[in-house]
Amino acid sequence: MRQTQRLTSDETGLAHAAGILRRGGLVAFPTETVYGLGADATNAEAVAGIYEAKERPSFNPLISHLDSFESAQGQGMFDETARRLAETFWPGPLTLVVPAAPTCTISDLARAGLDSVGLRVPAHPLAHALLQRTGRPVAAPSANRSGRVSPTDADHVLGDLDGRIDAVLDGGASQVGLESTIIACLGGTPRLLRPGGVPREAIEALIGMRLEDGPEGGRNPLAPGMLASHYAPRAQVRLNAASVEADEAVLLFGSEAPQGVESARTVLNLSENGDLVEAAAHLFSYLRQLDASGAATIAVSPIPEKGLGEAINDRLRRAAAER
Ligand code: AMP
Ligand code: MG
């Protein structure tokens, strides 16, 4: 259990909240949509803490919040349409999914291993002030436990997460109460991934075209993999490997080495001392590195199905099934 502080919406509270975020802690804060559970998006262990606190059984890409369009341009690449949307609707309840910029510092875990980033500049003055003082992208899904309703005030947040996060910045009730509209601008026709606070009609009127629907099955599908909401390795993935075949890439967990590990092509350990938060923080970047080794198969040690292990195993099972 942590001691969860309720911070006031003044200079002292803001400075405190920003300090906690910069040190890798978890702070819930108000936005104009709902309260978000924030962590430094550039720090994968901090991001893993979000999943642990929410008890979320699976990883999905998180929205990174920024203080300005200028900051967002250091993280993502905006084509003409994305730029117009940002200039018109930011700050506000709009999330843009764009290709990650070469200067992107958002962690693999916050991106769920994808080459794209979900970015938003919120309009709530406290959120804005906090992001300015933090000086980093802040990953923030809704500040509730998995499966519960999104919180619109600090009491809702504490009802779900008291003792599980470091602080909540109390800014009264959120106004929109709806989540942000998510638009993917990844080349081709922009796509509506989730309806929310900015109506579809307003977006279509601005860009002068109809949005494609949903992540899949539109008339104009983008290049394969571009919009998949999950990163899939090219290699086969073999789970619960008790032994290793020659030339396999190996993803270990804990201090026990499987039989035959000497003949592996590459070996990475998610966490030598069996820490699931550390393991979650490494998961996507290690999968990528092992995939890049060119091995035909990635053999994975068993990972306990408890705490964050559930989300890690969910991701690995999908990777093993995706062919
Ligand atoms: P939330 O739970 O409100 O934080 O919303 C997260 C949602 O944003 C995800 O489920 C995706 O639909 C979307 N999203 C965020 N980042 C990305 C990304 N890089 N690629 C695709 N979708 C994203
Ligand atoms: Mg939610």
Detail the topology: elements first, then pairings:
Blueprint: E1 5-7, H1 11-22, E2 27-30, E3 35-40, H2 44-54, E4 63-65, H3 69-73, H4 80-89, E5 94-99, E6 116-120, H5 125-134, E7 138-139, H6 154-161, E8 167-169, E9 181-184, E10 191-194, H7 200-207, E11 212-213, E12 236-238, E13 249-252, E14 266-269, H8 276-292, E15 297-300, H9 309-321
Parallel strand pairs: 1-8, 2-8, 4-6, 5-9, 10-11, 12-15, 13-14, 13-15
Antiparallel strand pairs: 2-3, 3-7, 4-7, 5-6, 9-10
Your description of this structure?
With 323 residues, this protein is of the alpha/beta class. It has two domains: 5-213, DHBP synthase (Alpha-Beta Complex), CATH 3.90.870; 236-320, Threonylcarbamoyl-AMP synthase, C-terminal domain (Rossmann fold, 3-Layer(aba) Sandwich), CATH 3.40.50.11030. Helices cover 29% and strands 18% of the residues. The protein is built from nine helices and 15 strands. It has helices at residues 11-22, 44-54, 69-73, 80-89, 125-134, 154-161, 200-207, 276-292, 309-321; strands spanning 5-7, 27-30, 35-40, 63-65, 94-99, 116-120, 138-139, 167-169, 181-184, 191-194, 212-213, 236-238, 249-252, 266-269, 297-300. It has an eleven-stranded mixed sheet, with helices on both faces. A four-stranded parallel sheet has the order 12-15-13-14. A hairpin with a 6-residue loop joins β9 and β10. α1 crosses α5 and α2 packs across α8 (276-292). It is globular and about 55 Å long. Residues 217-226 have low confidence and may be disordered. The structure holds adenosine monophosphate and magnesium ion. Magnesium ion (MG) binds next to loops.
